[in-house]
């Protein structure tokens, strides 16, 4: 298998095999299940989110299979309701929200800032266990028949009329929220208090800025959906009519409270992805990110503005015209910092020394697909257009472009970029590039037809449709199968690489960052000696960096 | 380690102030002042909260980041309440600040 | 420009304070980290209760007369007493930390116990109030009955009025119930702190757990400071 990279691979020291690192520091199940090492916890999360991603994909497969034909012939309509609900619940809460922060974030945040671990290692481990506890409740609900309310749990259906496992699923999501909060809290304190000497705020990698902004959203938003879910459970269980119109309650209030979190939640999903992309674009253009401060501040701006737009999910729900106008204007505004980032990445690419390694393929794909998703976002933020497009496949396509074309591409790119650091192994170049291509082609074939379907009026969450929509639906399902292959392949070659992959040196990509200044895999304490930072971020111009990424011997610090 | 130690006298003074403010809020509630009832009640509650935050919770001696964190929490709650009310209070009228 | 590497000094082996965790360099850093962490947790609590306050504000603005009438059935004297109890418990909590700062081990324990007793008093009064509501059939649900009503109104409006009153009581029970759960957790944590306090673990050099528990306790007090006027004092000037 071809495992070459474009940059001259600095051979790892001969005795690397015997060097202590976080993987061989201790063996056995207990050493993993009771670990406090943020790197091991990141891997534990990686396993968990992959399992839930597989489950969510299974539901997606069932959806696409049903939609191959206009009639509802694969399952009952009630079952279809459960399938798309579980797809949404599993993907949003158990995959997209934790994926990048809890796997890559957990692994990299201390490394990138020069710390030994996160501020609260035990809380970090607790976060993983809480995630799995939430997962158990949700899985129990799924295996007993699932929930049919849509992942949005709208009242009064969820509180009064649904005959499904609302409370169990809601409880699973409620518990999972705490896992998210623990992670966000940990990141904020770590980034504020545990940076290495010399690591000022404006020397931080943009990955850190993104995760900081994400953590702000997590801490401020998640509790609101938690209390809202609790109120739904209280209403369903104890008949305390908070949202019940028969008791004078307002179902729209549920939507306000739900979307107050769930809109910022989408920024929880995309901000870490943007952080990954900043790293990838810089590394594979061998150039500092254009407008570093603008990108850093854009992350914070997205986090703040993201809290002011939630009503755009409720344009046709019954709000006042005044309120929807305000929300529409704010939604236009929140697009601006995202656009700033896209422009800055593009400017970074311009006249950069670009190489098309697998992570870069995902990054380039991200920039294009995220832009499309974002532009369609401004379309539906326009009140008049949304009246027609709300609850159609246009919305579905829009958010899948961001979530899958954006977040998942970035997650894959990040996995491929940092895999050598995490595992100490290289993976096959040809197979990984092929997977990236399959993902890109499959994704577009799946979701672009859905823009057209939505525009033509096909509603979402319907298990049957008029026959004239069939061709586009078949294309979409075909695309989904290709996409599936693209996602399954990495499972195989990553697993292969663990045993047969060529061993990675410190810095196989020749990138700039503290995480590349330690061994692959890193030692448990991350750095044998804590670095003192004097270097600006992404400083690819310095002589030392140039020297380190050529055939000369790398800078080696005393390891023993 | 060097750390500010608030004197017991200050704590007792804050305690007394909180009790006085509680009495005040009960007394004022007994008069019908229209919309001012809510304003006064909230104002007193906010004052009590600020006393607890500043003295009992040691915000007085905390880092800027900590103070900002506390402020951010209350500010974000204000966003939730005000933008939600922005819908409810304008349901009846198209132009809430002029005309009907 | 380079990365130079230095020795890890401050975090030394056997000289380190026994409470210093290995990933921190100094006790000061650990204290600042744990304090900031606790404040962030309190921010999540602000937003958690905040959802309930938002619900209250919305319904209060829609059904103000019903809310006033419902609030009138709550005993403001018990509410005021409980407010005073909680404020006193905040004082004793603050004094517990003061005692640690001036190395008075026994006073730490005494003030912690006082705080717990006051907390239990609060819960006892709440239990009395809940029982009273139960007896008056003001607990929302199948057994809810509302006879007091507004003024002489037509029957359908009367039924609506009763619905909105029930809404108030739903909020009353959820908000005070959630608050009580937080009090119970707080008392539980205080109980946990008793043994280490007795053994003298908290002193001028190290008292993070006390500080963090104190922050939590004061926050629960602040929630009540807002709950009291909003729930109990609406109807004070009515009738």
Essential attributes:
heterotrimer, B: 100 residues, mainly alpha, 0% strand, C: 239 residues, Four Helix Bundle (Hemerythrin (Met), subunit A), 6 helices, 1% strand, elongated, disordered N terminus
Report on this model:
- The complex is a heterotrimer of chains A (560), B (100) and C (239).
- Chain A has 560 residues and is an all-alpha fold.
- Chain A is 65% helix and 1% strand.
- Chain A is globular.
- Mean pLDDT of chain A is 92; it is low at 1-8 and 551-560.
- Chain B has 100 residues and is mainly alpha-helical.
- In chain B, helix 1 (8-29) packs antiparallel against helix 2.
- Chain C has one domain (27-232): Cytochrome c oxidase, subunit III, four-helix bundle (Four Helix Bundle (Hemerythrin (Met), subunit A), Up-down Bundle), CATH 1.20.120.80.
- Chain C contains six helices and one strand.
- Chain C has helices at 27-62, 64-72, 76-101, 105-135, 155-198, 208-232, and one strand spanning 3-5.
- Chains in contact: A-B, A-C, B-C.
- At the A-C interface, helix 7, helix 8, helix 9 and strand 1 of A face strand 1, helix 1 and helix 5 of C.
- Strand 1 of chain A pairs antiparallel with strand 1 of chain C, so a sheet runs across the interface.
Concise description?
Chain A is an all-alpha fold. Chain A has a single domain, classed as Cytochrome c oxidase-like, subunit I domain (Cytochrome C Oxidase, Chain A, Up-down Bundle).
Return the string of H and E elements of chain B: HHH
Count of all domains of chain C: 1
Main sheet: strands, sense, barrel of chain B: none
Overall strand count of chain B:
0
User: What is the approximate shape of chain C?
Assistant: elongated
Beta-strand content estimate of chain B: under 5%
Order of helices and strands of chain C: EHHHHHH
CATH topology of chain C: Four Helix Bundle (Hemerythrin (Met), subunit A)
Count structural domains of chain B.
2
Task: Please specify the SSE layout and strand pairing.
The complex is a heterotrimer of chains A (560), B (100) and C (239).
Chain A: H1 29-33, H2 38-66, H3 77-96, H4 99-113, H5 121-143, H6 157-161, H7 166-193, H8 206-238, H9 251-285, H10 292-305, H11 321-349, H12 358-380, H13 383-389, H14 393-423, H15 429-456, H16 470-500, E1 531-533, H17 543-548
Chain B: H1 8-29, H2 35-56, H3 64-88
Helix pairs in contact in B: 1-2
Chain C: E1 3-5, H1 27-62, H2 64-72, H3 76-101, H4 105-135, H5 155-198, H6 208-232
Helix pairs in contact in C: 1-5, 1-6, 2-5, 3-4, 3-6, 4-5, 5-6
